[in-house]
Amino acid sequence: MTSGPSPAARSGRQLSPAELRDVVERYAEDVRRGSHVADFHTEDRWHVRIHQDADVDVWLISWTTEQGTELHDHGGSSGAFTVVQGSLTEYVWSGPTPDSPGELGDEPRHERDTVVFDPHYVHDVRNHLEAPALSVHAYSPPIRLMHYYQPSEGGLLRWAASWTDDPEAPPPAREAAFSSLEEMLGVAREALTRLTPEQADRAVADGAQLVDIRPEWQRRADGEIPGAVVVERNHLEWRLHPDSDARLPIAAAGRRWIVYCTEGYTSSLAAASLVSLGLDATDVIGGIQAWREAGLPTVAGPTPVEQVVGGLRVVPDSPTAGS
Questions:
Q1: Residue ranges per domain, the chain?
Q2: What is the C-alpha to C-alpha distance for residues 224 and 305, in angstroms, rounded to an integer?
Q3: Superfamily name with CATH number, domain 181-293
Q4: Mapped to the 3 state alphabet, what secondary structure does the chain carry?
Q5: Contact by Cβ (8 Å): 161, 23
Q6: 105 - beta bridge partners?
Q7: If you classify domain 17-163 with CATH, what class do you get?
Q8: Do 311 and 238 form a contact (C-beta atoms < 8 A)?
Q9: Residue 315 Cα to chain centre, angstroms
Q10: Looking at residue 275, what is its pLDDT?
Q11: For the segment 186-234, what is each residue's pLDDT rounded down to a tens digit?
């Protein structure tokens, strides 16, 4: 579920939306003037990096009929793209909101259309037409990590993470040709030694760290576990990996992470992603609902993102021996 080594720490700044728009539109004009020559392949998407510095990398990408990406984010990078020729269809994940886990919508993107997006953006881009298309994409800071998703009734299920500096590289191969979400979960859970709420509670007493990955509306509705750190699912790998420049202060090498969600489904995929990156991680069977049914403590939410839930528990500053 990963490819390549962990990236070096980023040294550049994140460009503003206006700067990203200017970058892609400027390079698109260079392409139209012939400064960069594109190719079109029927088997794989052709792409080439046409600029890179510490702040941004820029790619020229061609799309023939029915070529597209997987639903993905950009690992904490902001970005923009503009259509140089032809038309593309962009599928954008719009949630979650206080009333909905989110939905996938589609938008046509025609020649000279430009889209600018923030680090939370999740999308897929495809060419459904016979005519080839060409686009320029920019990412700031340059991409080092991507995550891949599958929509579900409960929101987005993340099935892979890939350390890569090539945003158009093929996504990691799925371990199986999943015919159902249950099959996907089964593969993810093979990498985990899952814990009951009681086992998780004892592991926390021994120095493990609970991680709440649920969106705000679920934390408001169902409460939170004291001592858990709240990390948005889209940022989980970046915030917990000890080699990431965006890591949390508690993300030390050797720490054990116990992820939980509402019922223990999304948490399994999240924990498996952490394991694939070399971290000691697992999840809570049954999520916070099982935790509450076991009579273990909860408090009202929501706690701000990347803060520790207040209450009875104390979060250790560093992993304890044997954790």
A1: 17-163, 181-293
A2: 12
A3: Rhodanese-like domain (3.40.250.10)
A4: CCCCCCCCCCCCCCCCHHHHHHHHHHHHHHHHCCCCCCCCCCCCCCEEEEEECCCCEEEEEEECCCCECCCECCCCCEEEEEEEECCEEEEEECCCECCECCCEEEEEECCCCEEEECCCCCEEEECCCCCCEEEEEEEECCCCEEEEEEEECCEEEEEEEEECCCCCCCCCCCCCCCCCHHHHHHHHHCCCCCECHHHHHHHHHCCCEEEECCCHHHHHHHCECCCCEECCHHHHHHHHCCCCCCCCCCCCCCCEEEEECCCCCHHHHHHHHHHHCCCEEEEECCHHHHHHHCCCCCECCCCCCCCECCCCCCCCCCCCCCC
A5: no
A6: 92
A7: mainly beta
A8: no
A9: 25
A10: 87
A11: 877 888 999 999 999 999 999 999 999 999 999 999 999 999 999 988 8
Question: Rounded distance, CA 135 to CA 137, Å?
Answer: 7
Share of residues in the chain with pLDDT > 90 (%): 60
Q: CA 37 to CA 43: how far, in whole Å?
A: 19
Spatial neighbors of 209 by CB under 8 A, at least 6 apart, are 228, 229, 250, 255, 256, 257, 258, 315, 316
Please state whether the predicted TM-score (pTM) of the whole model is above 0.70: no
Cβ atoms within 10 Å, residue 262: 21
**Exposed, middle or buried: residue 48 (CB in 10 Å: 0-12, 13-18, 19+)?**
middle
Residue 198, both tokens: 């009681």
Q: Tell me the per-residue pLDDT of 232-289, one tens digit each, with 9 for 90 and over.
A: 888 898 899 988 888 999 999 899 999 999 999 889 989 988 887 889 999 999 999 9
* Domains 17-163 and 181-293 agree in fold: no
β-partners of residue 211 are: 229, 259
CA distance 90 to 88: 6
Amino acid identity for residue 175 in this structure? E
| Identity of the residue numbered 124 | D
pLDDT of 168 above 90? no
Angle between helices 181-189 and 266-276 (to 10 degrees): 40
pLDDT digits (tens, 9 = 90+) for 57-100: 999 999 999 999 999 999 889 999 999 999 999 999 987 666 66
